[in-house]
Amino acid sequence: MNPQDHPNDENSDVGDATAERVRIFDTTLRDGEQAPGFSMDRRAKLRMAHALEGLGVDIIEAGFPSASPDDFGSVAEIARVLRGPTVCGLARCHDNDIAACGRALQAARHSRIHLFLSTSPLHREHKLGMSKQQVIDAACAAIERARGLCHEVEFSAEDALRTERDFLVEVFSAAAAAGATTLNAPDTVGYTTPTEIADLFTYLRRHVRGADQVIFSTHCHDDLGMAVANSLAAVGAGARQVECTINGIGERAGNASMEEVVMALRVRRPYFGVQTGIETRRLYPTSRLLTQLTGQSVARNKAVVGENAFAHESGIHQHGMLKHRGTYEIMRPQDVGMGETRLVLGKHSGRHALRQRLQSMGHEVDEAAMDSVFARFKALADKKREIHDEDLEAIALGLDPEAIGPWRLVQLNTNSHMGGSASASVKLAHDNGHEIGEAAIGDGPVDAVLRAIERATGTTLDVTQFQVRAVSEGGDAQGQAQLTARHAERDWRGNGVSTDIIEATAHAALAIVNRIERRAPATPPAAVARL
Ligand code: KIV
Ligand code: ZN
């Protein structure tokens, strides 16, 4: 697709002196990391912290130092190495927590202690067993203690959205007087709505004593799927710090997703009239890094960073996109660091998109031939969910895109030991009637199988992506291996399915070798049996 002017290009984040700044407070390493399935070791946290610094976040909540020695160590290390953002640690309003947080943050260039205490009637009665006055006194004492141990103090009124408004005003007024410079009103249980939270922030800004000396902050959970909408509504009502996480990870249904908040503020800049300091082109790489570090991928249709966020399959949309990208895109994939818009060819696609893709691959198809190419494409698209460039190439060259072989897997054995290398042997049959056996060792069973297949077929595969996922449930679940490999300066994809994931990988590798060989038939191998 040729680059075209985008209707929202004027919404660039850079250099708008009139727009007020909203601080981005990232809590991926604290609220995000404490959710089941998202824990990270110290090295992973450090990598993530560097990525967040590169993204330009204002504050990184690096952990909860008194939660464990490991959390303490991670916060201390992040505080020592990051020079850009403010490094923040979480603490309850307890002496020990505050002291540990202060020690962990000692080496930070700029440090913040984030104190929290519940304020809602439900929490006061059932969790804390404290009166309103006791809550105010504990919060103020903690703030005063923390002030001497860091550069700035944030106070969070946990479960603020279910707290009596007048009491919240009292707590925040006392916290500001005690020296807190950021006042956070978290929707701890994801209960509020955009109108309600906007109303609350308007009320707080009007009634909290010393409101003009502090930053009001929003921290929304996604239990009812409104965390981003609620955060944006709070910004609309004057919040100037948004607490959020990459990919929206966090307790239960998660926190507000940073990429969604940031892009909403950017794409709708004239509406919100504020800007962040985020380098939006780092959003997608940072999201990918988190999925790699935690092993938890995002939904394909996830806003801003999902695989489908800039993909179009319907013929009507593709036609519109080819005329002007603004017809169906409100932001550019490049703006979030995602590369190009993808016109995905499938059964809903039309001739325009097919011709355009073939041209970009170097195949000029004249009008007469186009009818039959399009008919073959549609017939294949009815059977396959997605059509790849290899399929299109086969159609354009008059080859059969559904052909299988020439190689088939006849036998596979692997052997691996914990902490040691692995070995694999394969026996393959070729359509020319020959059988060949090969063995190889590798860093693990997958590597060993790939090496053995390379040796048997004589085709080198430089694997660039490898993914395994379950395609059915239960102990006998089928695993699908998806492999992308580079060969002769091109990317080739192959899939394999089996109850054994190593066998699925072998099928995926052979699917690639077969495609390569069908495209440029190799000299048939001699019959060798080395098994
Ligand atoms: O959700 C919440 O209330 C929190 C606080 C610790 C800020 O995460
Ligand atoms: Zn939270």
TrEMBL record:
Its EC number is 2.3.3.13. Its cofactor is Mn(2+). Residues 408-531 are annotated as: Regulatory domain. Pathway: Amino-acid biosynthesis; L-leucine biosynthesis; L-leucine from 3-methyl-2-oxobutanoate: step 1/4. GO terms for cellular component: cytoplasm. GO terms for molecular function: 2-isopropylmalate synthase activity; acetyl-CoA C-acetyltransferase activity; manganese ion binding. Catalyzes the condensation of the acetyl group of acetyl-CoA with 3-methyl-2-oxobutanoate (2-ketoisovalerate) to form 3-carboxy-3-hydroxy-4-methylpentanoate (2-isopropylmalate). Belongs to the alpha-IPM synthase/homocitrate synthase family. LeuA type 1 subfamily. This is 2-isopropylmalate synthase. It comes from Dyella soli. The gene is leuA.
